[in-house]
Every structure is written in C-alpha cells, then in structure tokens.
C-alpha cells in the first residue's frame, strides 16, 4: 500500500495526478498557486541551495587552482583557471589510482563474501527459533552504532597489545598475532573485516525480511516431490529472494564507493596513504586538510561519475535479469 | 542513498506466524542452526561487550592482560566520564543536531510531499523527479564546496551549518517515503472535508497529518539516526571551526578524546561505551516505533 512496505526501489513517478473533476473556482486557483509556493518553497530552496549548488560548484572549482578558504572573487584572478589539470594530476597520482582500486576491492569483496554469507545465515535462521527476537536485536547492534564509534572500538581491540592479539595468545595461536591496522600488507583486509562485522547484520535482517515474502507452499510442494533442503533453497528460495538480494547489492556497492568514516577513524594517516586510502578519504585529505579545494573538488567529481557509472551499469544488468526472469516465467 | 533508508522496507520477521519447516520429519539441522545463531550473535556483540567491560578495568590491568575480565571492577573511569562537562557537552551537541535536523526534515518534507502528492499543477512530476534525482548526489561529493559555501554564509563552525545541509540531504528519501503515503489517503476523505467547508490546508492539518503519522515517524527516525551517527559534515564544518571541543557532537568528541588520551586505554573504553549507549537505547525504542508505524500503515 505504501512505498515503505515495498522492498523494491523508490517509485519513479509521482503517481497519477489527483482526480480531475473536482475543479475549484478561479479565485481558488490563485490561492492554490500561493499554497504551492509556500509549501514547496522551503524544501526547494534547501535542496537547490545545499545539494544541487554544491555539486555544481564542485564541477566549477575542479577547473581551478585554489588556495584554502578562498573568496569567490579569487576565481577571476589570472592563472587560477587551469582547465583539466586537476583531473590529469589525479589520474597521474599513484595514491589516487590506488584509492580507486581499494574502493573496488572493498566493493567486490563485499558482494562476493558478505552477500553469500548473509544469504546462507538467513536461510539457516529462517525457521522458528527460540529467542528469535533477541537474536535479531543482537545481530543488528553493530549496524546501529555510528561507524566512527564502532571503528574506534575495533581500533582499540586491534592494537598490537589489544584484545584480539591477547585472545589469540591465550588460545595458543600467538603466531597469528599481527599489527592489524598498521601493517600495510593486511590493513585493507582488517578494514574489510570490520566493515563485514558492521554491515553483515543489516544484510541478514534484510534477507530474512525478504524470505518472509517467499511463499511457503512452493517449498512444501517441492519437498513432497522429493527435493532436498539444499535443492529447495537453490532452485526455489534463492531465485525468489532475487529482488532483496539486488537491493542489498546496490546499497552495498554505493556504500563501498562512498566509504569514508571507518577508514578515516581506524587507520592512521601514514598507513592509510600506503594501504587503505579510499576516494573519499583522499578527497577530504587533499581538499580540506592539505588545503587544495580545487584538486579536492576534481576528486569529488570523479567520485561522482564513478558512482553514477556503477549505479547505471548495475541497474541495466539487474534490470535485464529481471526481464529475463519475467519472460521465462511467462513461457512456463 | 544510504543503507539506513531500507531498514524500513522489510517487515519484521517475528510479527508473522512462525513458519513450519516444510514437511520434513525430524529436523536434524536444528542444533546446528542454534550453533550458527549463537556464533553470529557472539561475533556481533563480542567487541561491544569487550569495550563495555574494558571500561570497568584500569589501564594497568588492561596493559597486563588485555583479554581479561574486570577484577576488581572499577567505576572510576565511568564516574570521571560521567562527571566531565565534556561528555555531556558532546551529548548535548548531538541532541541539538539530531533534534534540529529531525524537526526540519519532518516539517519541510511533509509540506513539499503534500503538494506533490495532492495538488494538480504543471511541473508536479518534474518537481518529484528533481527531488528523487537528489539520491544521485551523495553528501561526500558535495562536502568540500558545501564547506566553502557555509563559510560564505557565515554558518561555518555553527550547529546550523550542520543542521541545514543535513535537512537538505535527507529531503529526497523523505519525499520518496512520504509522497506515496499521502497519496494513499483516499480522495473521498478530501471531498467530504471540502463539502463540510474545510479548506485544503485545513484538510492537511486536521486529517492528513494525523493519518500520515506512521510515515512521519519512519522519516523522523531515519533523519535522527542519520544525524546522530553523522561524521563527515561535523568533521568539515565543526572541527575546523571555532567551537570548543566540549561542544562538538559525540562522534567528533569521541575521536578527539581517544586521540588526546590514547595512553589511557581504560578511559577511552569508558568514553566509547558511554557514547554507544544513546544509540543502543534509541534503537531499542525506535525499533518498536518503526514496526508499529509499519503495522499502522498496513491497517490504515
């Protein structure tokens, strides 16, 4: 009945126009116009001024060489306009290219590891269990915490003399001890583990909700026909979970590309630059703290187009799969 | 679009009658399932417990045996955090930001959604498309120019400098959730109200608003949580401003504290665990409200 109940993505239209035929007299047409302006005005001003305008400004600034906290009239100074040089510099920078790579490593690792893990656990838990409500609350806890605070907790746990290494020691696994977040060769995977810890619960809850929409009768019919538990999951449940999986994958990919808080807080800047830089941390580092808003804006624009491209490609692919499913369903 | 937007999309599992396991005699998998459930829950909650327990130890204990249990329990860390103006300043700042953002999102959002859902005019569809297109512009992309813009407007370093952009960036999700909600309220109600002599605004105020409460709660909770957990905007707008760190919001305050007192692990653990409590408490309360809101929507 309402959009909030549908697991499918946002509606793309505003819906049908309100029923015609209850036309109001002319005097109220003027009144209606005033009402529209007064009611939509604030939202429109906020949205255009603080969402759209900054994005446009980012595109403009990216063409300039700008000092930190500059004034707008400085845009007109000679030698400020440098064309695409900021973009050139970004793609020539090994650090930034590495950052793009890191974003995509996290993206694919999330899809390939977190996805199957969440689906598997959800399939197992999708049955009457004692303490199900408590379980649901517990596995959701990491997701509820701020990324920064969760990251800080893990930073403390993963210190060389922190809880994780001590735990390994006491289990007789001392040889596995690492300097988890400071060793550039493993820091990215440590980070991935923290992200998995933080977001797996959300994925499981999402999948469990999706499983509620899979009709039970199909599984029962298949079981009567002699299908094993695994066959039922593989050929009936998981395909029917498709829409949920696709939404989760979309959210996960966008999150991976925008990744900032967790990296910024858990990994020390020196290690970050060598191992776990992401596009967003590089952008903030260069644009804000290294005082190069023009260059940082170019990074923002690149980040925007990469996210947009991924979103569009994904929608094209996922949409095609949905259509293919619809066709085969029609044939059968 | 953030992951938070879809918490509300699924119906909670336990509000449906328990499913029967499809016609298979003895359920040999049951113990295994409980084992998996236990492991998942333990992994999820373990680090949080470690932080909480660590807050009750002394730094000397923690250095001697990082994985041990509190022995003896000490309340000194918690007491000193709870007694510090700094912690309460951080909490207060977070509350101001979250309440301001939530109120702004709900008020501005419902007004715009009302027009898009229930007025007939040219450009209505265009307006809706414009707001939904906002999902394509994440805060990360806009953050740097936004900071400069706020400087120009004199809002840099102030709470308003965080609240106003937060409202703006929450609008797309808000409008996407609210428009179908408002649209679903039958036209007959509006006609009846208008026959009884109520203006459109009267209809909005007396009928639509109460009926759309569940949607407003959902939108409000999302905005509140988003603001409470937000880091990037406060980092760029507040930490680089003139506001003293005693008045920074919690995520900033906690990171600042942990950098300053990095040698005093126990104090950092206590500060971190106390910073977790509001989010956890709010989640316990809001979870029911979201669920209740969705049930209300189904029945309505």
Automatic annotation (TrEMBL), chain A:
<dbReference type="InterPro" id="IPR000515">
    <property type="entry name" value="MetI-like"/>
</dbReference>
<feature type="compositionally biased region" description="Low complexity">
    <location>
        <begin position="1"/>
        <end position="16"/>
    </location>
</feature>
<dbReference type="GO" id="GO:0055085">
    <property type="term" value="P:transmembrane transport"/>
</dbReference>
<keyword id="KW-0813">Transport</keyword>
<keyword id="KW-0812">Transmembrane</keyword>
<protein>
    <submittedName>
        <fullName>ABC transporter permease subunit</fullName>
    </submittedName>
</protein>
<dbReference type="InterPro" id="IPR050809">
    <property type="entry name" value="UgpAE/MalFG_permease"/>
</dbReference>
<dbReference type="Pfam" id="PF00528">
    <property type="entry name" value="BPD_transp_1"/>
</dbReference>
<keyword id="KW-1003">Cell membrane</keyword>
<feature type="transmembrane region" description="Helical">
    <location>
        <begin position="247"/>
        <end position="267"/>
    </location>
</feature>
<feature type="transmembrane region" description="Helical">
    <location>
        <begin position="186"/>
        <end position="209"/>
    </location>
</feature>
<feature type="region of interest" description="Disordered">
    <location>
        <begin position="1"/>
        <end position="26"/>
    </location>
</feature>
<comment type="similarity">
    <text>Belongs to the binding-protein-dependent transport system permease family.</text>
</comment>
<dbReference type="GO" id="GO:0005886">
    <property type="term" value="C:plasma membrane"/>
</dbReference>
<feature type="transmembrane region" description="Helical">
    <location>
        <begin position="137"/>
        <end position="157"/>
    </location>
</feature>
<feature type="transmembrane region" description="Helical">
    <location>
        <begin position="295"/>
        <end position="314"/>
    </location>
</feature>
<keyword id="KW-1133">Transmembrane helix</keyword>
<feature type="transmembrane region" description="Helical">
    <location>
        <begin position="36"/>
        <end position="64"/>
    </location>
</feature>
<keyword id="KW-0472">Membrane</keyword>
<feature type="transmembrane region" description="Helical">
    <location>
        <begin position="104"/>
        <end position="125"/>
    </location>
</feature>
<dbReference type="InterPro" id="IPR035906">
    <property type="entry name" value="MetI-like_sf"/>
</dbReference>
<feature type="domain" description="ABC transmembrane type-1">
    <location>
        <begin position="100"/>
        <end position="314"/>
    </location>
</feature>
UniProtKB/TrEMBL annotation, chain B:
<feature type="region of interest" description="Disordered">
    <location>
        <begin position="1"/>
        <end position="21"/>
    </location>
</feature>
<dbReference type="InterPro" id="IPR000515">
    <property type="entry name" value="MetI-like"/>
</dbReference>
<keyword id="KW-0813">Transport</keyword>
<feature type="transmembrane region" description="Helical">
    <location>
        <begin position="127"/>
        <end position="150"/>
    </location>
</feature>
<feature type="domain" description="ABC transmembrane type-1">
    <location>
        <begin position="91"/>
        <end position="286"/>
    </location>
</feature>
<dbReference type="GO" id="GO:0055085">
    <property type="term" value="P:transmembrane transport"/>
</dbReference>
<protein>
    <submittedName>
        <fullName>ABC transporter permease subunit</fullName>
    </submittedName>
</protein>
<keyword id="KW-0812">Transmembrane</keyword>
<keyword id="KW-1003">Cell membrane</keyword>
<keyword id="KW-0472">Membrane</keyword>
<feature type="transmembrane region" description="Helical">
    <location>
        <begin position="162"/>
        <end position="182"/>
    </location>
</feature>
<keyword id="KW-1133">Transmembrane helix</keyword>
<feature type="transmembrane region" description="Helical">
    <location>
        <begin position="203"/>
        <end position="225"/>
    </location>
</feature>
<comment type="similarity">
    <text>Belongs to the binding-protein-dependent transport system permease family.</text>
</comment>
<dbReference type="GO" id="GO:0005886">
    <property type="term" value="C:plasma membrane"/>
</dbReference>
<dbReference type="InterPro" id="IPR035906">
    <property type="entry name" value="MetI-like_sf"/>
</dbReference>
<dbReference type="Pfam" id="PF00528">
    <property type="entry name" value="BPD_transp_1"/>
</dbReference>
<feature type="transmembrane region" description="Helical">
    <location>
        <begin position="91"/>
        <end position="115"/>
    </location>
</feature>
<feature type="transmembrane region" description="Helical">
    <location>
        <begin position="266"/>
        <end position="286"/>
    </location>
</feature>
<feature type="transmembrane region" description="Helical">
    <location>
        <begin position="32"/>
        <end position="53"/>
    </location>
</feature>
